[in-house]
Amino acid sequence: MKKQEEHIESFKEKLMSQRKKLLTIAIIFISTVVIIMGSYIYNVKQESDAKELEAEAYRYYFGLIKNTDLSQEQRFLKSAEFFLKAYEKKKNLSYLLNAGYAYDMAQQKEKSLEILNKVVKSGDPNFSNLAKVKIAMIHLKYNEQDLTEKYLMDIINGNSDTLKDFAMFQLAKIYEKDKRQEAMKYYKMIIDKYPNSPFASIAKKFLESEQRNKAN
Q1: What domain range includes position 171?
Q2: Is residue 7 in a domain?
Q3: Residue 183 counted as domain residue
Q4: pLDDT tens, 147-189?
Q5: Domain presence at residue 31
Q6: pTM of the model
């Protein structure tokens, strides 16, 4: 009888221990689900907020805001601010890139370059090229040819094909003035590497013109 009671007690203890394990597992499972759901809801909320801020940024960028006395430069500054707020909510490089564009439109050269260089350093080669092209065009606008060439060459020598034909074209246009041979080199590169580029036809016309001039 005593052994039977001991057996029953042992069984109860095992059953209680098993229940505790199951309860612990259930608590861990529920906690994990709550954390995942919480994280999902938070990310959805952040993305939704970012989209709203992005839409507001575009409204200022394209002048769709009514009843405002803001100057054009102030409007672009507001647009940049909203793009940066959107980036704080969701680390989407397009927000950062657009903020750089908006600062340029607001005539805020240094701020634009600061933001665009963050995109360059992001590690994404495609977005990096987009930013480098804009940086090159800003330097070109301010007649800073050495820096313009530097960023265009960075794109041409990089691994990403994004806007590489555009970089070659811009560099060729710069060299047309006093480095005709260099211009020809980059026009030939466009034709050879990017025959379907919208710049290929312009490159062909330039090379054909050069050949006619030599023949005459």
Answers
A1: 143-216
A2: no
A3: yes
A4: 999 999 999 999 999 999 999 999 999 999 889 999 999 999 9
A5: no
A6: 0.79
